[in-house]
Here is the input.
Amino acid sequence: MSSESDLETWKKLTYIDELPQDIGLFRKLLEQYSRVPPNEIDELLFNTRKKLWEVAMYPCIGRWSFLNLRSMHDHHFLTAFERLKNSTRPGSASGSTDALLDIGCCIGQVLRKLVQDGIEPTRLFGTDLHPEFITIGKELFNDAGNGLTLVAGDMLNPEDKALTELNGKITLVHAANFFHLFKWEEQVKVGTRITRFLQPGTVDAMIFGRQIGTHKPREREGKLGSFLHNQESLQKLWDEIGTTTGTRWRVEVGFNEERQVSIPGFGEEDRYIRFGIYQLPPQ
Here is the structure.
């Protein structure tokens, strides 16, 4: 997108000027968690979105999707929440506790909502490619030093030393609008990296989230090419990751048939999906 017209076209297709109406949960989070006066929230959100857009022109920023906390009510998230509420997992090694990593955490809104709902912040972790997003999140929520572990790093770089802070800490992984950004071989790298984050002895890890999928799995062409999955192809991917890492996984995918993907570069077979990737005990 080198020319001005390309940039304007991208903004036209991925940028919404006005705040959405259905962000009541996010407003309540700012009021109750960050103590922001209700009459100051709109201006704060516009300023925050402007800062984020200047870092990266992602559709989830342009369309205000980062304000949507309703996805935390799906059954995968509810399962993760119940596990986080309990300090020791049944059947786990003595003293082992569940901990959640939000990959591509943006401003850390999901993690703050979990803290607001009663989860101990020292058991919550987040990572994003852009350190600016983490800084902007701390400014928005006014909670620097609150116990969350937020790390900026590149999941595609196996030698990124910043991410080693997460090794051996995690049992639950939330990844929204993340895997669909990458090609098959890149997704294998990311999945392999995730297994390094797991607590030693973990046999019941869960990876879950939402993204763009498709009824006809394929590699998208071009500079920003990526691989889109259905259940069968995502299972095949995690079978490959499992072979590489000595782990076993079961995949579940649910399609949202009511909404077609309106972002440029996606077709009629593409749909929004929710997925759960469940670790299986070794054979």
User: Anything to note?
Assistant: Residues 70-280 form a domain with the Rossmann fold fold (CATH 3.40.50.150).
